[in-house]
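[job 0412] stage=fold_complex status=start
inputs:
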Amino acid sequence: MDVVAGVRGDTRARAMWRTTGRPAAAMIRLELLSTLTALAPYLVVAVAAALAGFILQNDLHRVQEDGLLVIGNPFAVSLYGGVVLLSVYLAGSAAIAVAREREQGAVELLCYGPVSALSYLLAKLAGHTLQYAFLAVLLAGCYLLLAVVTGLHLGGTTLLAMALSIGPAAASVALGLLVAALVRRVRPAIFAVLGLTLGAVGVQVAREVLVRLPAPEFHVNPVYLLRWVAFAVSSVTQWLLPFGYVDRELTVMLRGDLPGALGAAAAGSVYAVLVLVLAAAALQRTGIRR
Amino acid sequence: MTEPVVRTEQLTKRYDGLVAVRDLELTIEPGEIYGFLGPNGAGKTTTLLMVLGILKPTAGRIYLWGRPLEDDPLAVKRRVGVVGEHDYIHDHLTADEYLRFFADLYGVPHPAERIGAWLERLGLLEFRTLRARDFSRGMKQKLALARSLLHEPDLLLLDEPVSGLDPHGVVEVRHLLLELNRRGVTIFISSHLLSEVEQTAHRVGIMHRGRLIRQDTIPALRAWLRQEPVLEVELHAPVPHLEAQLRALPVVRGVQANGRRVVVTVTPGADHRGSISQAVAAAGGVIVGMHAHEPTLEEAFLTLTDAAVDRWTS
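[job 0412] stage=fold_complex status=done
writing structure:
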């Protein structure tokens, strides 16, 4: 039987399912089986929950001391910390998974069969994003438990912000995939993801510090110049790196701006798709062989 | 007319100035077992990877079932089963899970039955719940073979398929390949061992330094590779001018004298020990030992790919 002709006889959707969807579904199942039976994702959730516990304990301590604490959303900082931690973990995990499978020859073995660079990376993106959804539900459960224990209010806005963070999280995963497609090896991939994360955080911190720094009244003011540079770099990285999408989505959602949060989540998803296509092209170019 | 299963046209692969495969014209007909031979580094695996679309050729074209590979590589690859050099991965999975994953990947109908059947056929059924990392090398090789056959491919590409197998396993795999071939599966075996393919292959192609130096049937190749027999003569003492006297004999093709030891290359087809003995005695020599040595096909192949082919190609 001529399979090529057979595929042409199919409907376009069925052919797409056969050539891309079904292999991707099989790879997603394997990805979830491998990652969700590992210890690392649960450790990250535990660290995020511990961080939330520490922050809430601190808040309660201040209430005890001052008798009053005015705070908009007691879970806001914890939510930022948790979502950023999970996003960075998944970006790193995706980069390591692809770089390691490439080194071991797993990608090559898959490509002996009906798997293309795009369907392979698509499966990785979907697998890690689903993993994020599962871990986010676990973390939300932890927050709920902390809310019950501390008596602090966990609002629907917080939970919705967490749910919508799946778009920016997918963007983080896509960045990890792009890094692995470009650098090939496990260790450089880890350093690259860590470097990008720390770089993004560093630029944000520098910008905040420079905004607060008093500017001496010189003719050519170096603080103004540095402030302008930090602002320019941070404006670019806010769009080029996925952590900016996480920040925007959480900020607008916690302000109660649902359309804005939906827009930020959608922007994160678009970023994920674009970076995925770039990663597939990079993987093709650098070669799937180790 | 039936299209060849695999056909390459002027296939070339270069890496930074090094030519791994040069102007390869390969044809594999439907239903044949093709042995792709050559020493390590000859360009066999590179060719295999280009046929699979893993490596992009520098020049030339590849046709599978008459269609250019680049037309629809994913659909074409559904018809191909591969045992390559990277088969010992995903070894955290059990044999059953491993095969189930590949069955899902290819959309194999009734996967449980088919997995069970192949595991039984390859003697791995009792180990199906064992993780692949706990398998011996031979068992992993059989598992890779089971994986490559799950989706009932029309073309089987095997890179060193019996490496790691014990003699019993080698025979088992050989029988399996012959059985698959009888069912119409075209088989392409890449190997550096002539002995591995000479009992199964209908045709053989020999690669050397990226070139296909010979493509023929096994009997024709056997005739081509057959080398002249050699007589190793041990003398009681060195004999002056013996070399020249031996060379004068019509059955002698070459002589190498080294003190008491003389190596005489003779024409094939008859026992020339008598005439050599007479000639040595006539020259005043005393023979204390004589051994006839006819190179095996394997030795002839190795010699040819190492040295004679170099001369042939130059």
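[job 0412] summary: Confidence is low (pLDDT under 50) at residues 1-8 of chain A.
[job 0412] exit 0
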